[in-house]
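Hi L., both proteins are below.
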Amino acid sequence: MLKLYIGNKNYSSWSMRPWVLLKQAGIPFEEVMVRFDSMGPGSEFRKSMQSINPGGLVPVLVDAGFAVWDTLAIAEYAAETFQDRQLWPSDPKARARARSICAEMHAGFGALRNACPMNIEAALPEQGAIAWRDQPAVRADVQRIVAMWTELLEQHQGPMLFGDFTIADAYFAPVCLRLKNYALPVPGHITDYIRRVCALPGVKAWIDEALLEKDFVDLDEPYRASR
């Protein structure tokens, strides 16, 4: 069976992507959570992960002793291994576009990620309002996401970005939670898409389990002194 190493569900947006992908696609896997303590080179987290991934980070997918790390690589490996699940769109141009927007997410939107770190358990509308007011780069990131999602939802007639659920929806699931929990202003049809993503069984399972966690990681809590 596949084994997926992840960090805390409440905080780890990168871990969420492959977990949701596998869960929503009905691909069996064993979860191994490696809880965050710190990201320093001597941390227990780093020491635990370096024997599996030389970079010392999550997520990592292990298949019969073979390790794949980085979310895009994991997604591609899953798509190639489980071709019957149609994790990418079947149309070549749609597939290329889905890969393009996942790569854009992978490399970009740094302002949104830095200003609004994922925190599923917290409601942070005041912090979102301050980021929206004071950081033009955050507004630009959200504007780009809204434009991207709008075009795809209109072109493919929803309910997901490419009609049916694909890697792209798993990849943007943490963004949905950021927009929701920080109450960043988006149009109604984007709010509707966020609601549909959060209702997906794979996403809902992640959220429910994140809410049960009791860990409080200072590194990931720039806005609160306690949970």
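That was the first. Here is the second:
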Amino acid sequence: MPAPRIAFLDVDGTILDHGRTIADSTVAAIRSARAAGALVYLATGRAAGDIDPAVAAIGFDGAITNGGAYAMSGDATIVADPMPRDAVETLIAYFERRGILFFLQTNDAVYASPRVQVAVSDYMRAWLGTHGDAVEPQTAPQGPPRFRDLAEIDLDAVAKAVFLGDATDTVDRAASDLGERFHVVPGSMPLPGGSNGEIGMRGTNKGSAIATVLAHLGIDPAGAIGIGDSWNDVEMFAVCGVGIAMGNASDDLKLLADEVTTSVRDDGIWNAFVRHGLVTP
């Protein structure tokens, strides 16, 4: 019996139009593919507890979360790889020394200081105010992360850090300053200025988690499809037999994918699924 087809989908900018809408065609593509026997997994940088309810309600066979630090297949935990406590302490000290705003993710939730909670809320309101009428609402997501107080976090449970800088070179400087122990990539938050990034441990990424899930399922990576729009999707593209960049991805990221589909606003997932026979138009 042939192995089932399998697809891994990023969330923000791929399924969800950055805190605003989910195209009806995306919901139809995922549900139709699964009904036809394909497996569809999330592959997101978000914490499991921060996945938008509207996204989760579509229905998936499992999820890679926190940029690869955790993975579920059905109800089974396949990957659980939080950051070492001393690495978390190194990051916090670095952010505080440099005056960089940051928040931390566990698998259950997102934690930030009151100052960062206000800053992120202001950023998102400003961006949505500029772009809010660009797409007709189809599904109404919850919007920005629902933060918990950073003072309550268990430093032994941190999976990933996200940071926001006023300077355009904040991500490059963090990568240089923090060294090879950490995996630093540009983030996907739509900031009105400056830059933002994500930090995990070197070797922990969407690609590493997908490889573990595929081995667990007994599926050849050559038969897997990965679809995304952000720099934390690069390793997913490398592991999956076909890496597909969304039309709204940066031109540099598109060069690292095998294919480019249309944008999140223009039926990108549906068109990719049709092209690869996961759904019938």
